[in-house]
Amino acid sequence: MKYYDCPDCGRKNLNSGNFKRHLTIKHGYTEKQWEVAKSNPQPKTEAPLNKAKFDRVFKSVLERTGSAERAKNAALFACSKSAPEPSVEGTILKMDEEQRLVWGWASVVSSGGIPIIDRQGDVIEADTMVKAANKFMEDVRVGKLMHSGDQIGLVVHSLPLTKEIGDSLGVHSDREGWIVAFKVHDDEVWESVKSGQLKAFSIGGKAKRETI
């Protein structure tokens, strides 16, 4: 996405839609004048760095590696367009029809050594993920359709996989996260899984955000 600076008042880093609204409403530009301003390479700038995201990733990597240089590079990469996305999170990756099991990543906290920024803009530490997975298996384990209603299944296998745990077990993965297997008891829900209507699952929970 390209960003623009207003040539009249100097307001910076407006995306295309906001740039047009700003010029037409605040400065009374006509459609033709807006097109000229948009085509002018002078006001275009790069998107601003997300400082909050940078700080979260920097702190996370620094605590884990002790290297300020690695932490800086990881934070810059996480703020870039090429940063990894948790695309496999919640997706059913394997299905066992005989046992009615679905396997997948309930949570992905890092990929390629780079912390994942979740949909709320937070970084989940690997040890925090392990504790949450343990607590879930000790106290909850049950599954419901869309997090409500009656129980439709149960988490029967759980593996919180960090680099440390993986190295100890001889299991190598580019990802750190929580692998689960969910057993579906409800007949109607299982038919929806087999037909592809239900393609993913999610683990609900609560957390306390730490401001950095």
Give the topology.
Elements (H helix, E strand, L loop, with lengths): L2 E2 L11 H11 L4 H9 L4 E2 L5 H15 L2 H11 L15 E3 L4 E11 L2 E2 L10 H14 L2 E4 L2 E14 L1 H7 L5 E10 L2 H9 L17
Antiparallel strand pairs: 1-2, 3-4, 4-5, 4-8, 6-7, 7-8
Helix pairs in contact: 3-4
Structure write-up:
This protein is of the alpha+beta class and 212 residues long. The chain has 3 domains: 3-45; 49-83, no CATH class; 84-212, no CATH class. It contains 7 helices and 8 strands; from the N terminus they run E-H-H-E-H-H-E-E-E-H-E-E-H-E-H. The chain has helices at 16-26, 31-39, 51-65, 68-78, 126-139, 163-169, 187-195, and strands spanning 3-4, 44-45, 94-96, 101-111, 114-115, 142-145, 148-161, 175-184. Strands 3, 4, 5, 6, 7 and 8 form a 6-stranded antiparallel β-sheet that branches. The chain is flat and about 65 Å long.
